[in-house]
């Protein structure tokens, strides 16, 4: 169990390093105002950040997801496995319920972590920079707004993570079974990468509009007066101002990120476990660590 956890953490770190530039682009596209469009699309956003802020601009806020990764993986692995065992049978319904439970519980860490990440990704570069890092960001928010400020976007995070983790675990289980991911199977690693990447894409598609709302709520007030009174008001104002397409803004960069993130995660997990365990195969099958939604 400890080895699975450590391998999952290593895989998660690899996934964050691969996927964070795409996440930065996604957040910037999601929160930009229709009255003052700064980026024309995913590629233009990438090019603008590289030109104005160098490659380091794509990795703004990296410390926050890395900081929370260990705790999130611990919660996800522990809750999903124990819930599945408590439900008594490995069925598609129970896979979804166990994944949903894991997604809901890890929001306790995920929400403040993503709040800090979003604020760091959006802050100005150079002397105008307000936050020195993830912990400094959360400390500043807590000093100004208290515990409620640190947990801004908690409800929208729950609405996103609970069903999306259910979809992820269900899809991953179905895909690994369908692809025949058994110990010693031919092309096992490519199959695992395909299953993990596809499941990640499906989980994002299942709740992406909620993610747009969450990002807007967590970025609200960063450069002036707060615009939104809550989730419903954010949905209403966003729809009135920009139409239904606003809830798909940043989707391309998210889907571009989803597959390589999961591919990097599973490749790292496989390498770590194979070196740690040696040539002896695991009796109950390959270790399939589940990546988080970072």
From TrEMBL:
Provide the residue intervals of the Solcar repeats: 2-86, 90-178, 185-275
Report the locations given in the UniProt record: Mitochondrion inner membrane
Q: Which reaction does it catalyse?
A: L-ornithine(in) = L-ornithine(out); L-lysine(in) = L-lysine(out); L-arginine(in) = L-arginine(out); L-histidine(out) = L-histidine(in)
Q: Does the keyword Isomerase apply?
A: no
Q: Which InterPro entries match?
A: MCP, MCP_dom_sf, MCP_transmembrane, Mitochondrial_Carrier
Enumerate the PROSITE patterns for this protein.
SOLCAR
Any Pfam family: Mito_carr
* MF-aspect GO terms: high-affinity L-arginine transmembrane transporter activity
Domain of life here?
Answer: Eukaryota
Q: Name one GO cellular component term.
A: mitochondrial inner membrane
Q: Which GO terms describe its biological process?
A: mitochondrial L-ornithine transmembrane transport
The UniProt keyword set, sorted, is: Amino-acid transport, Membrane, Mitochondrion, Mitochondrion inner membrane, Repeat, Transmembrane, Transmembrane helix, Transport
Q: Which residues form a coiled coil?
A: none
The answer to whether UniProt assigns keyword DNA-binding to this entry is no
Q: How does it sit in the membrane?
A: Multi-pass membrane protein
Family designation: Belongs to the mitochondrial carrier (TC 2.A.29) family.
- What PANTHER family would the database entry show? MITOCHONDRIAL BASIC AMINO ACIDS TRANSPORTER, MITOCHONDRIAL BASIC AMINO ACIDS TRANSPORTER-RELATED
Q: Write down what this protein is called.
A: Mitochondrial basic amino acids transporter
């Amino acid at each position: 169990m400890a080895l699975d956890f450590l391998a999952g953490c290593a895989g998660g770190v690899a996934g964050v390093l691969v996927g964070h530039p795409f996440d930065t682009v996604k957040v910037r596209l999601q929160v930009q105002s229709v009255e003052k469009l700064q980026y024309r699309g995913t590629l233009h956003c990438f090019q603008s950040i590289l030109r104005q802020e160098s490659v380091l601009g794509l990795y703004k806020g990296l410390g926050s997801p890395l900081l929370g990764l260990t705790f999130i993986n611990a919660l996800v692995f522990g809750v999903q496995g124990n819930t599945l065992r408590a439900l008594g049978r490995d069925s598609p319904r129970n896979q979804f319920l166990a994944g949903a439970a894991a997604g809901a519980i890890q929001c306790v860490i995920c929400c403040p972590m993503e709040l800090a990440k979003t604020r760091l990704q959006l802050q100005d570069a150079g002397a105008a920079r307000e936050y020195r890092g993830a912990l400094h960001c959360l400390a500043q928010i807590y000093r100004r707004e208290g515990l409620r400020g640190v947990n801004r976007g908690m409800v929208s995070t729950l609405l996103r993570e609970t069903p999306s983790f259910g979809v992820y675990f269900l899809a991953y289980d179905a895909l690994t079974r369908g692809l025949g991911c058994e110990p010693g199977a031919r092309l096992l690693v490519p199959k695992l990468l395909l299953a993990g990447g596809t499941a990640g894409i499906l989980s994002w598609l299942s709740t992406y509009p909620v993610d747009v709302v969450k990002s807007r709520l967590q970025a609200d007030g960063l450069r002036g007066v707060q615009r939104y009174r809550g989730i419903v008001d954010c949905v209403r104002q966003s729809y009135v101002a920009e139409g239904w397409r606003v809830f798909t803004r940043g989707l391309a960069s998210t889907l571009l990120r989803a597959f390589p993130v999961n591919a990097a995660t599973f490749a790292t997990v496989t390498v770590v476990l194979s070196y740690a365990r040696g040539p002896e195969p695991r009796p109950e099958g390959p270790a399939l660590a589940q990546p988080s939604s970072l």
